[in-house]
Specification:
2 copies of one chain form a homodimer. Chain A has about 350 residues and is an alpha/beta fold. Chain A has 2 domains: about 160 residues, Quinone Oxidoreductase, Chain A, domain 1; about 150 residues, Rossmann fold (3-Layer(aba) Sandwich), CATH 3.40.50.720. Chain A is about 25% helix and about 25% strand. The first copy, chain A, is built from 9 helices and 15 strands. In chain A, strands 3, 4, 5, 6, 7, 14 and 15 form a 7-stranded mixed sheet that branches. In chain A, helix 3 links the parallel strand 8 and strand 9. The first copy, chain A, starts with 5 loop residues before the first strand and ends with a strand. Chains A and B meet through helix 7 and strand 13 of A and helix 7 and strand 13 of B. Strand 13 of chain A pairs antiparallel with strand 13 of chain B. Chains A, B: This is Alcohol dehydrogenase, zinc-containing. Chains A, B: Pfam families: ADH_N_2 (PF16884), ADH_zinc_N (PF00107). Chains A, B: GO terms for molecular function: oxidoreductase activity, acting on the CH-CH group of donors, NAD or NADP as acceptor.
């Protein structure tokens, strides 16, 4: 049985952004998606992810992920429902009606190789959680804090971008794992309130209210032991100044400079890393999928018990996908930014 | 029996240098040193060490070592001979005629607590080697390469300041431990020749001949896995660019900026540490004295077999101590800079 083609809208990158991306760098195009061939499934996407790292893929530079191609659909995490299965599916394999997590977002319908989709359970948490708290950002927080930064109970942790999908989870995992003190920075007073009142941070500050170094020193008068960096720039420099001896930083993102058209100033106090014996370590979540089982069990348990909170910022409609992405770079989101596709 | 006092010349810091130190920042003063009390020895220094890290101690800033005090003698590594022992020495303890390594250099005679002097054997190597290849710089190289940077056989190593006391040893230990390729930078063509012809480096370049990044990329076309940083600045930035994924840097010194009066530019490409999953780790040799036995045995063996070479730059006379120190900051030395005190 052959499935007829479907009409799908998908986002193409039509030119490479210079600095801050603009809507004109993208185009929403209508295409026909063929029915699935053997070993394929056709998925109707229900939620798609927009993430800061995607900014890097819009540049034509060699990196850990290939650049998006011009006039081709962008991609990224998505969850959806299987609407058709190609000929000769494997017994026990994916079936029509199954919910799946896969990597072909930025479009309404995706033709996915069965080996590149994972069946997910829609019952314990909303489907969109598989893009956030139980998905890639969640694992990033978990692996970055516990493995890359080697956090230990009794330490003081600072996380920047703390109201974001990754940062909010870093702070809460630190608290649940016995941190002496958890400090976060965010870009609005409302986000700071969220950190203090809902996420259980011990201290938090709005980085737009004054120099980061001074605010951090005040929020962590005993210094910090771990820094989880989502921002770079002045945040990293402040952390280096506040580090206690043998402090460790997980370098996860540097959103402060993703739109920079020339190299940004780096931490001018890096020489302090010698005397303090600091470790700065870059990370990509892709190295840590061996922790997926442990992560899902532990964090899933905390969510079920109500001990770990999360927020999502939901934008409706594929046609608003680019606007949602631009909003992330401005810090519009609280928690994971998700684009929910109209039914 | 009471030992009469001796007359000794010692170097005092008389004002804190601004930028590059000048001779006027120091004064050689003649003092009387009392005979040793109980639990003390009087040592006539034979060789004293001048090291780049001492520049930091001339500033009035909190660091891992206290600043030198104004109008007080400076201190640092020295080897000498015991000329008097205080009352009631321990059986088997230090005796007149013993050679010792201790921390009260920058002077002709030192009154040392017996617990702060270590007996050394003058037979296998020249005494001055205990200040260099078998001393603090040697252990720095050994621990920094093997423990801090986690060097493994088959990797490519880059070391800056490679003709210096630490750098020359880093490169040779890497070679002896099975590096795929050892690359060094130094500040003169003559030093580059030494690296290639005597120390067995696979490639070396004079950083004054052109931008470091380009010269490093040419010297290590397959990229580098380990960087041992004695220099900072453009060298660290070049290393970050040349790193292969999962590269590690031991941050040991940043001599390029020791005389800086304002914070120097830091590596503008630090964001590459994320995608490449780099680790930058500061070190102080003081954390690694547990490796002393293993280090002395392994490196002592290589020296005895002629497989590890070293150079010293010797300056004669305590009165030339400051000039020797200033020379280090200019890069005048090849290998360890030692001040030998006139008999």
């Amino acid at each position: 049985m052959t499935t007829p083609p479907v009409t799908s809208r998908e986002w193409h990158l039509v030119r490479r952004p210079e600095g801050v991306p603009t809507p004109e760098d993208f185009a929403l195009r209508e295409v026909e998606v063929a029915g699935p061939g053997s070993g394929q499934i056709l998925v109707r996407n229900l939620h798609m992810s927009v993430d800061p790292y995607m900014r890097g893929r819009m540049n034509d530079v060699k990196s850990y992920l290939p650049p998006f191609r011009i006039d081709r659909p962008m991609d990224g995490g998505a969850v959806g429902v299987v609407v058709a299965v190609g000929d000769a599916p494997e017994p026990g394999g994916l079936a029509v009606g199954d919910h799946v997590l896969h990597g072909l977002g930025w479009r309404e319908y995706a033709l996915v190789e069965t080996g590149r989709a994972v069946r997910i359970d829609p019952r314990p948490v909303p489907l969109s959680a598989y893009l956030g708290v139980l998905g890639m950002p969640g694992l990033t927080a978990y692996a970055g804090l516990l493995r890359v930064a080697e956090f230990k109970a009794g330490e003081t942790v600072f996380v920047s971008g703390a109201a974001g999908a990754v940062g909010g989870q870093v702070g809460q995992i630190a608290r649940l794992k016995g941190a002496a003190r958890v400090v976060g920075s965010a870009g609005s007073d409302e986000k700071v309130k969220l950190l203090l009142e809902e996420y259980g941070f011990d201290a938090a500050f709005n980085y737009r209210n004054g120099p980061v170094a001074g605010q951090l020193a005040q929020a962590a008068p005993g210094g910090i032991d771990v820094y989880f960096d989502n921002v770079g720039g002045d945040h990293l420099e402040a952390a280096i100044s506040s580090f206690n001896p043998h402090g460790r930083a997980a370098l996860c993102g540097m959103i402060a400079q993703y739109n920079a058209t020339e190299p940004p100033p780096a931490p001018r106090n890096l020489a302090l890393a010698i005397g303090k014996r600091l470790t700065l370590r870059g990370m990509l979540v892709g190295d840590h999928y061996d922790l997926q089982g442990q992560f899902a069990e532990e964090v899933g348990g905390w969510i079920a018990e109500g001990r770990l909170r999360y927020r999502e910022t939901v934008v409706e409609g594929v046609e608003n996908g680019v606007e949602a992405f631009l909003g992330i770079l401005r810090g519009d989101n609280t928690g994971k930014m998700v684009v929910t596709l109209a039914a």
